[in-house]
Specification:
binds flavin-adenine dinucleotide, Enolase-like, domain 1, seven-stranded mixed sheet, alpha/beta, 21 strands, 15 helices, FAD/NAD(P)-binding domain, single chain, 3 domains, binds nicotinamide-adenine-dinucleotide
Length: 464
């Protein structure tokens, strides 16, 4: 006999937790199904550990630019202390505190692997093989996240390389690390392990790093990584990977430019795919292993009856924790009968890359806005020319760029590079999501002497 709930959520990452908690707060009876740790990839093997590894290096970098402080510095980071800090940030890979939170949020946690067995029906197989059948009166929400994509490179899979789990969780610093990929994960983890003393080589197939961002971002970051001692190969790919010692020894990586790299660890950071294999979506006519396409109400396209929702990484709209949480909250509201529609994830998505310098962006790049037919005017200003930046540290640089819809006189995109710019981003997110006109922004006066004064300079450069 099936256990009945109003809503069954499969996957208890940040997205599933938010969807479930929102629905439960409104009075619905919610089951939250999880087969690993409550908190998902983000809490244990992605956002939290990577930022815990990056922050000490960034603090050191800031200190190295600060007269009176840099003279006090003695030597490199204390590796043991940084790794201990990382372990604390992932709660020792234990989800006890998350389970307590779920209880407080009135969620019924069902441990095991969830699988759709028909409309509104989910079967959950626990570790010991015991199966529980669940039935949802209102809806099933898929929030199963994503997993690393390993391209078809000869010998790669057999060599058992690192993915984000080892890349954020390693217990020791590899002497030589090769990173395949030039996206967000690649640059952050290349930076983190370099800061901790590894000899890092990054191999990117594209002409620059971070190709989804404004071109100056990738160029500046490649330079910053090189200055930090990372070897950066662009327009290069790995063609073959070999490993000695029965999959435990040294890696040999052959590149398209005929170079051969040798390494103690190899990190694959080449994108992610939706976790929909073995989920039973094929029984509903959806493609197993592919993202679940959704409408703006996060309803799975191609499934009748308004009962199947998908949010977070699994729908492929935006692979970011805060956007998954946003979608989760919207689904919770929709299930409570409130009018809600996702639009921030197509026009006002913010993202921070925690390298040093940081990268922060929201909305469209210039190229994306032009492609969307927006009448574009752009303005750019060097962050180093703002008084607040020079006070923050000697020789700090960076760039701020606004993409403006000239007709509506609103900002449709903003990008910043520089020290600590992540904390400056929310002002831009408010301007983009709120469609605040430039004439109103002129009266949003930034404090002196902060880096935010770059807003004034950008508006002046626009012509205000
Ligand atoms: C190295 C790295 C660093 C990152 N850093 C950031 C960052 O700084 N900021 C940011 O915004 N984003 C970051 N991201 C992206 C972020 O991790 C994801 O966007 C986020 O985890 C997505 O949340 P989710 O809940 O959709 O999926 P997940 O966090 O993947 O959670 C899905 C959950 O579903 C469970 N599950 C899957 N299948 C089943 C099943 N059949 N039955 C039961 N349970 C199941 C999984 O065990 C997991 O707990 C990073 C990613 C990586 C790889
Ligand atoms: N701070 C953050 O917000 C943060 C940090 C890490 C990851 N994330 C998110 O996690 C997701 C995954 O990150 P990611 O860096 O793996 O993905 P990504 O899509 O950002 O980058 C993938 C990289 O792999 C390369 N690549 C893909 N296929 C390839 C192939 N066959 N051969 C050679 N190169 C190939 C691409 O050129 C690109 O450089 C992203 O959506 C990202 O936004 C976010």
């Amino acid at each position: 006999m099936a256990e009945t709930f109003d809503v069954v959520v499969i996957g208890a990452g940040p997205t599933g937790e938010n969807a479930g908690a929102r629905a439960a707060a409104g009075g619905l009876k919610v089951a939250l199904v999880e087969h690993e740790l409550l908190g998902g990839e983000c809490s244990y093997w992605a956002c939290m550990p990577s930022k815990a590894l990056l922050h000490p290096g960034e603090t050191l970098w800031m200190a190295q630019h600060t007269p009176g402080v840099r003279e006090l510095l003695q030597g490199p980071l204390k590796v043991d202390a940084v790794l201990k800090h990382r372990d604390k940030m992932v709660s020792g890979y234990d989800d006890k505190s998350q389970a307590k939170w779920a209880e407080g949020a009135k969620l019924t946690v069902v441990r095991g692997r969830g699988k759709l067995t028909g409309p509104r029906k989910v079967s959950v197989e626990g570790k010991e093989g015991k199966v529980r059948e669940l039935e949802a009166r209102r809806a099933v929400v898929i929030a199963t996240g994503s997993k690393p994509r390993h391209p078809d490179i000869a010998g790669l899979k057999e060599s058992r390389p690192w993915d984000n789990r080892e890349g954020t969780g390693a217990k020791a610093v590899p002497g030589r690390l090769v990173v395949l990929g030039g996206g967000v994960e690649a640059v952050e983890l290349a930076q983190a392990w370099r800061d901790l003393g590894s000899e890092v080589t990054l191999v990117q197939r594209g002409p620059r790093l971070l190709t989804r961002f404004e071109p100056f971002v990738g160029e500046q970051l490649a330079q910053a990584l090189r200055d930090a001692g990372v070897r950066v190969f662009l327009e290069t790919q790995a063609t073959k990977v070999q490993r000695s010692g029965e999959g435990k020894g040294e890696f040999t990586i052959t590149l398209t430019n005929r170079d051969t790299l040798r390494a103690d660890a190899l990190l694959v950071a080449m994108g992610r795919t939706a976790r929909t294999d073995d989920l039973g979506v094929d029984t509903l006519g959806l493609k197993s292993g592919a993202s679940i396409e959704v409408d703006d109400q996060l309803r799975a396209k191609g499934v009748d009856g308004d009962w199947l929702y998908a949010c977070g990484d699994v729908n492929g709209r935006n692979l970011l924790t805060h956007m998954g949480k946003y979608q989760g909250r919207l689904v919770g509201d929709i299930l409570l009968g409130k009018p809600a529609k996702a639009w921030a994830d197509t026009k006002a998505t913010p993202q921070v890359i925690f390298t040093h310098p940081q990268v922060a962006s929201v909305g469209h790049t210039e190229a994306q806005a032009r492609k969307a037919g927006v009448p574009v005017k752009t303005v750019q200003y060097e962050l180093g020319d703002v008084a607040g930046t020079s006070l923050l540290g000697e020789g700090f640089k960076g760039t701020a760029k606004l993409v403006v819809d000239e007709q509506r006189r609103i900002i449709v995109g903003a990008t910043f590079t520089g020290p600590g710019v992540g904390e400056m981003l929310h002002a831009a997110t408010i301007a983009v999501a709120g469609e605040v006109t430039l004439d109103t922004l002129w009266h949003a006066v930034p404090s002196y002497p902060t880096m935010s004064e770059v807003w004034l300079r950008l508006l002046e450069a626009y012509g205000l």
